[in-house]
Amino acid sequence: MQEAQAALHVCVDPGVLPQLVADAEGELHLNTRPTSPLPYAEELRDRELAVLRLLPTDLTQREIGEQLYVSFNTVKTHTKSIFRKLDVSTRSDAIVRARGLGLL
């Protein structure tokens, strides 16, 4: 795979080759870090990131809303969106996934 990566660097216009190499690395479990923070989901918005950064704390969703000057319902909406985008279902899973993706 290192040879494939080296070949990519000398290509003037690699086209879809980088994605094919990344896919092959993924299939072989050689890819140690994702090519983008959220490889299969849409990016988190700024306010979602702000909520995400407070999830590892002991703050409740209501307290997170107070910290960010938004309503409890807004925090719930952002949290649901974060869970969907990170493909998780719990706060602790979101924290683990976000840390793994370098978002925290």
Question: Helices, strands, pairings?
Answer:
Layout: H1 2-10, H2 17-27, H3 46-54, H4 61-68, H5 72-86, H6 91-100
Helix pairs in contact: 3-5, 4-5, 5-6
Describe the protein.
With about 100 residues, the chain is mostly helical. It has 2 domains: about 1-30, no CATH class; about 45-100, Winged helix-like DNA-binding domain superfamily/Winged helix DNA-binding domain (Arc Repressor Mutant, subunit A), CATH 1.10.10.10. The protein has 6 helices and no strands. The chain has helices at about 1-10, 15-25, 45-55, 60-70, 70-85, 90-100. Helix 3 (about 45-55) crosses helix 5 (about 70-85), helix 4 crosses helix 5 (about 70-85) and helix 5 crosses helix 6 (about 90-100). Residues about 30-35 have low confidence and may be disordered.
Jot down its keywords.
single chain, 104 residues, mainly alpha, Arc Repressor Mutant, subunit A, 2 domains, 60% helix, 0% strand
CATH fold type of the largest domain: Arc Repressor Mutant, subunit A
What is the CA–CA distance across the termini?
29 Å
Strand tally = 0
User: Percentage of helical residues?
Assistant: 55-70%
Number of structural units classed as domains? 2
Write a brief structural summary:
By secondary structure, the chain is mainly α. It has helices at residues 2-10, 17-27, 46-54, 61-68, 72-86, 91-100. Mean pLDDT is 79; it is low at 31-35.
